[in-house]
Amino acid sequence: MNEAPLQKTSDAINLKKVVKQFGGQLVLDAVDFAIAPHEFVSLVGPSGCGKSTLLRLIAGLETIDSGSLSLPLIGRQKNPSTQGNQSAQIGETAFVFQESNLLPWLSAFDNVALPFRITGRPVDRDLIESTLDTVGISAAEFAKLPKHLSGGMKMRISIARALVLKPKVLLMDEPFAALDDLLRTQLNEELLRIWAGDKLTIVFVTHNISEAIFMSQRVAVMGADPGRIHDVIPVSFDYPREKSLKSSSDFAKCFARVSQLLEETNR
Amino acid sequence: MNLKKNAGYVLPALGAVVLLLLGWALLKSSSGYPDYILPGPGTVWSAFVDHRMEILRSTWITFLSASGGLSLSVLFGGLTAIVFSQAKWIRRGLYPLAIFLQTVPIVAVAPIIVLWLEEGIVATMFISFIVSLFPIITNTTAGLLNVDNGRYELFRLYRASRFQRLYRLQIPGAMPQFVTGVKIASGMSVLGAVVGEFFCATLQNKGLGRQIFELKDYNVPWMYACILIATFLGVLTFSIVSLIGDRVLLYWDEKKISNI
Amino acid sequence: MKTTLTALLGWSVAVFGFGSVLMLCCGCQSETLPQTDKISLQLNWFPDAQHGGFYMAQLKGYYSQEGLEVEILAGGPGANVEAKVDRGKVEFGIANAHRILLKRNEGAKISAVFAAFQKSPRCIMVHRESGIRTFEDLEGVTLAVGSDAAFRKFMEQNVDLHDVKLVSYSGSNATFLQDKNYAQQAYSISEPILVKRQGADPVVLMLSDIGFNPYTSCVFASEDYLKNNPETVRKFVRASQKGWEAYLENPEFANQKMAELNKEHDLIALNQGAAAAAPLCRPKEGEPIGSMNPDRWKVLVGQLKNLKMLKPDFQLNEAFTVDFLPVH
Known about the structure:
The complex is a heterotrimer.
Chain A: E1 13-22, E2 25-35, E3 40-44, H1 51-59, E4 66-71, E5 76-78, E6 93-96, H2 108-118, H3 125-134, H4 151-163, E7 169-173, H5 181-198, E8 201-206, H6 209-215, E9 218-223, E10 228-234, H7 249-265
Parallel strand pairs in A: 3-8, 3-9, 6-7, 7-8
Antiparallel strand pairs in A: 1-2, 1-4, 4-5, 9-10
Helix pairs in contact in A: 2-4, 3-4, 6-7
Chain B: H1 3-31, H2 41-50, H3 52-84, H4 88-103, H5 106-117, H6 121-145, H7 149-157, H8 162-200, H9 207-215, H10 220-249
Chain C: H1 2-32, E1 37-42, H2 52-59, H3 62-65, E2 68-73, H4 81-86, E3 92-95, H5 97-105, E4 110-117, E5 122-127, E6 142-145, H6 149-158, E7 165-168, H7 174-178, E8 182-187, H8 191-197, E9 202-206, E10 216-222, H9 223-228, H10 230-249, H11 252-261, H12 267-281, H13 294-306
Parallel strand pairs in C: 1-2, 1-3, 6-7, 6-8
Antiparallel strand pairs in C: 3-10, 4-10, 5-8, 5-9
Helix pairs in contact in C: 2-10, 2-11, 11-12
């Protein structure tokens, strides 16, 4: 039931029989999945299905126990025998957490500048400012501290930070879960714009089906116990997508299909 | 900087002081204690006025010792906390030593310190340093270790080195705890200086501690004046530290806990 | 839960009841004793040669012969003897004359009735190697002094101390033993003897030689106590005088007791101390131990006023009295 729209060698991300255990508990059981370059893919599933773990494995925050995980797009091979991350270019893969994780003592600008500073690269002021602009943060906000910024703005800044090293792959772990629906929809649209402009490969984890369908080209439905990808649903609406899409009947059909699948795999 | 807001701070404090003074006067008159045990506020004030030059000079000496001691413990405590935060085995090994430093009675330690450093402000400063060191080490170490998980992962993503992590994440993140430690240490540095002066003072540079020690035998109201000034010195040191600390922490305030 | 509460209650009652009975019994005890006056004597330091006569009086039964049951309370650093006596916590105390005056200056109503030492053992102890033999020679040393400010201020006023580093006295001889340029306050009957035993060669500069000579180891009581218990006071002074006579004759008996109580001095040191004390205690020929001359007190008042330690209008009044000394 898995689809691999492109050949393996030109995949962005490739997982083969990936197994992950946490202290005796099998979190991911022989996951096979391939993501093409510049794809927008969502992972949906109930809590405990391993979707976040999968994302974190791709990011290199965890290591796989067996199987293979490779990122041919950026030349990174990951095998269970290799502990830790290979020395691929830092910043090729970017990660956005559910909490914005801004450093409270740094201004919005300095938070976005942080990746430059940590990796010892010269701070590209223009790039930072334009990235902040792209995510919708105005110049008046650049010098503000996180405590003076709303939740939505902090999340935008967090995305800007992820984008500032010009990654090829963007991994997002339920980034909009803590925001209200209105804001979420707004940010969904903006994310699509960014994706269209930057040629990113995006893997988006969420438990919100509507959000997943709205943004993605494919939606991978995962089940828990053990964690596995049960099915991958293609979403073939045209881009750019407007929020009016959500009220269409085709959207509703897709939604129903995904919901049903979720229910089936998690009975 | 409006007048009303300032009045809101000053008036309650002033009121508390007035109440304390009244209570003191009441206690004096009702208890019937003689002046050489409990002098009244008026007597103490006269003693202060009569000997103000000598009191102020002693206060200055004590202030030098206390601020020197506090500066040392801020510097050394901060550095030690950074070292402590680096490895569990370091903490396991050296923590007991730090606790020992805290609990060893000054009475026992002071003569040894005097033998080593010779009498004078330096020795008193050292005692003030020992007494005020521990709160800074414990609080700062806790702050350095208490790293937000998400931020830690962020640094991992960028393959931050240990030094980067320390410099950009742990140390800034520890500031609130560090400031708390310094606040606690400030009061103790004055206490340490006063007690240290009992043992280490030269009589040319007496300090409040030594003065108090002598005056108990022949001028108790003057002694009370010195004790009150010493207390005031402690409060002053604490206030200065708090002012600076809170100013620094303006950058750190993640959740507004104010409205104090 | 109910049984635990009951048990707790039961235990509390038992303890409270037992404690009350115990206290009552202890209270009863003192009432059913025969007619001896129970009095306490508070010392101003740990027991040593400066207190020898009083221990002798106790051990030889001189107090009990007078119908007095005397409890001697050891003192130490920070023992506020004058306050204890003034407040009625103890009947008699030991203090030096200047301390009695200073406390009277602060409002205490205490009076000296007996002066064990005619000559003050207060001295400065230096190393022979320092070459210092008199107060004029005092220079180039570190001098450690304790909290007793009177004699130090007297020295500052009457001796050239500009080349002397005055520091706090820690109470131990350790620094003195290690540093030949170190000097410290002492009692001629105590510290010099101790440091000699440890190999040092001390020289003492007596404060009395430059004119500071308060009566030492005075027995004193509150004015009220003197007024209300003249007979007891008389008996106590009489017995104490006998005790001092006996102590100066042969101190061994009392020194054994004090060696037990004060681990810092052993028997030999105390015997030597007593020997050193003898010439300080014996007054001029014919005068009994303990006598006091009003002129000595007047001189002391003048000196303390000079040092700004007494109010300018301070009066001797009842600071001392010879009325309780036995008439010879």
